[in-house]
Amino acid sequence: ISSGSRVLFVRLSAPGDVALELPALATLRAARPDLHLAWVTEDRCAGILQGLPDLDELIVMPRRQWRELRRESGRRAALRAMRAFGHELAAGDWDAALDFQGNLKSGLVTRASRARRRIGFARGQTREPNWVFTRERVPLPDPRLHRRERDAALLRTLLPATELDLDLSPDFGLSPEELAFAPDCLAAPGSS
In what helix (H) or strand (E) does residue 166 lie, and over which residues does it extend? Predict the structure, then answer.
């Protein structure tokens, strides 16, 4: 993948699972600081990703808004809003989209991105028919692999000739003072 390429992470939900994908973001940023890294996630998970130094762009899928629109204005209005979101996503001119979630919803978003390379897991290793929305399907030797190894398989497909440090922690953009203060907060009375 060339310098300056635009790469989209697709992990829409749930909050804990979004947080568990952060090392994959840190790994890709460290390996290729020249890439434009974006992440599409649902509105309820956006707070986890806001302000991360490793992330160039956060795209929020307004799922709550769509539910409310459907309740108030009907199914057609909600479908129009979803279609408009898909068009906005496709306008990002993505070089690659990595589907870390592997379900129908994430597959639809990956497809809507119109990324030139859509990378996900192989048939039988996703929930629902997610694999039909990707072009590059990564087979896993064992479906019980640790999440870190599953993520690494997607990253290696994107960057096959790049050495990846899979032990990186995400950068939360905290100052040295904030990092020094964290242990005191955790040890404060009533914090258990």
Answer: none
